[in-house]
Amino acid sequence: MRHGSNRVKCRPAVGDGDLTRHMVSMSRKSAAPKTTLRQKSQLMSGSEIERTLVRLAHEIVEKGDGIKGLGLVGIRRRGVPLAERLGRIIGRIENAAVPVGTLDITFYRDDLSTLGPKPVIQDSEIGFPIDDKDIILVDDVLFTGRTTRAALDALFSHGRPRQVQLCVLIDRGHRELPIEATYVGRIVQTTMNEVIEVKLMEVDDAEKVLLMEK
User: Fold this and answer.
1) Is the dihedral of CA 101, 106, 108, 111 positive or negative?
2) Residue 172 near residue 159, CB atoms below 8 Å
3) In angstroms, rounded to a whole number, what is the distance separating the alpha carbons of residues 198 and 211?
4) Tens digits of per-residue pLDDT, 112-160?
5) 173-203 burial by CB neighbour count: b if 16+ within 10 A, else e?
6) Would you state the pLDDT for residue 27?
7) What b/e string do you get for 147-169 counting C-beta neighbours within 10 Å, with b at 16 or more?
8) CA 188/CA 41 separation, integer angstroms
9) pTM of this prediction?
10) Please, which contacts does 77-82 make with residues 24 or more away whose CB atoms are closer than 8 Å?
11) What CA–CA distance (Å, rounded) separates 148 from 150?
């Protein structure tokens, strides 16, 4: 009795690059439709943002007993212009320059949490030595804490500061990691269906903070 041969079709081996492209393709196919956000209210105007930064600058000088050894590092994107503004205000208060640097963490927005499980650290442009310095990380919105955690990892790859503190314009709660800001412009109680949008002239050609709803 003759039996038919059973043929098993094998797919060719997939290299890392092909696998990555395949995963990206599948991710795109399964991606949910873009969420439309509705504005609920305006939390801060441009003048309120500026007054808040002036207050934060004074707090930084007072708590730090001056600016000796101080350095500001903004988390890209909107943390960078905020850090630069704080640096200028502190410079006017103390009549001395404060070094300002940048940490670039892209493909992830901590206020939306939709683009991946963790932030991706890119090349940084700190621009000054951070060893034995008092470093203040500056960001626009503090949410889960994952962006700050990634920024800390990136920061310590550049050296060993004496102290690291966090300054944010808005703290919206819902922390997933034990991270808190030393300097907070405003605390806003939010739900998980709400989003804080910070708009700055340097990035958005607008100056305001909005509360949006998914």
Assistant:
1) positive
2) no
3) 9
4) 444 444 555 454 578 899 999 999 999 999 999 999 998 998 888 889 9
5) eeeeeeeebebbbbebebeeebbbbbbbeee
6) 47
7) bbbbbbebbeebeebeebbbbbb
8) 12
9) 0.77
10) 77/203, 78/139, 78/140, 78/198, 78/200, 78/203, 79/103, 79/137, 79/138, 79/139, 79/140, 80/138, 80/202, 81/200, 81/201, 81/202, 81/203, 82/53, 82/138, 82/139, 82/140, 82/169, 82/200
11) 5
The two three-digit tokens of residue 3, written as one number: 């039996």
Query: Read out DSSP for 16-75?
Result: HHHHHHHHHHHHHHHPPPPPPPEEEEEEEEHHHHHHHHHHHHHHHHHHTTS-TTEEEEEE
Going by C-alpha positions, the residue among 196, 200, 198 that lies closest to residue 212 is 196
Residue where the block lists tokens 């969420």? 35
